[in-house]
Write a structure and sequence with these properties.
9 strands; globular; four-stranded parallel β-sheet; alpha/beta
Length: about 350
Amino acid sequence: MSDLTAFIGGLPKAELHVHHVGSASPRIVAELAARHPDSPVPKDPEALAEYFTFRDFAHFIELYLSVVDLIRDAEDVRLLTYEVAREMARQNVRYAELTVTPFSSTRRGIPDAAFVEAIEDARRGAEKEFGVMLRWIFDIPGEAGLEAAEETARIATDTSLGADGLIGFGLGGPEIGVPRPQFQPYFDRAIAAGLRSVPHAGETTGPGTVWDALHTLRAERIGHGTSSVQDPELLAYLAEHRIPLEVCPTSNIATRAVEVLDDHPVRQMVDAGVLVTVNSDDPPMFGTDLNTEYAIVARLLDLDEAGVAALARNAVQASFLDTAAKARLTGEIDAYLAAWPHGA
């Protein structure tokens, strides 16, 4: 293990772009598949690596939805959420804004109140047991259209459900054939209810999708935004307005949004002055984790320990933590760097 790898492993971190179901480890996916034997998902953790080999983004969505289908009752939801937090704790993730898709569960018959109760119970337990603070971004699965948008907005704005960890409203799924502007009324409702706007945009489509997310959905952060580098005016806008990009390198390769890792545009983003955060997206499905993503970006940007710590601070800065909590987590990062043998 290199010094930098060891440094990344112990570094206190925040993660802003990571999906609930997409974070299910092979062990948990296999356990859920065994509980639901009618599913095509392999029951053997060893076979899952081959199963999660994607031809393209559309194939990824198909396989992703087959795992979503394993989450069929509130206990499945609670177990998944709690185990995701356990995996995060092993990587020294202190805080995560987990993208959750209620529609995927409610349309399978899990009542919205039971769904929220399950994730909230897991959130409270994970913070007590693992020291990981979870917050939720409820996202619209774009491929499911306006029915899903309406249901997601309804659940997100229903304060009687007790989703105390809910802070953001998002939009995921495929971008091709799913224009952003149609979701404006639902984002308007969520924003009016005090939620933050964090849609995916510019991953498998061009910079126009990012502009749409900014102008019609009032995005405060952009999920992926990979194609932003094709438009210098857009990069300048993101940098000037301090709108962060949630960068997920291995995901971009797995879904063919970027062909070759060495050609990933993260360098262009940083050189343009954009606030870049490092994230894992759907880590077990892509055979990665947050520590690996930090190591990849460190190599692409030729960073030392101080540079990696700066990336970790970016995630804290770009998060929706309150000022005091940001200061505490930034202080942890600074103290860790200062105590490191090669620290600043």
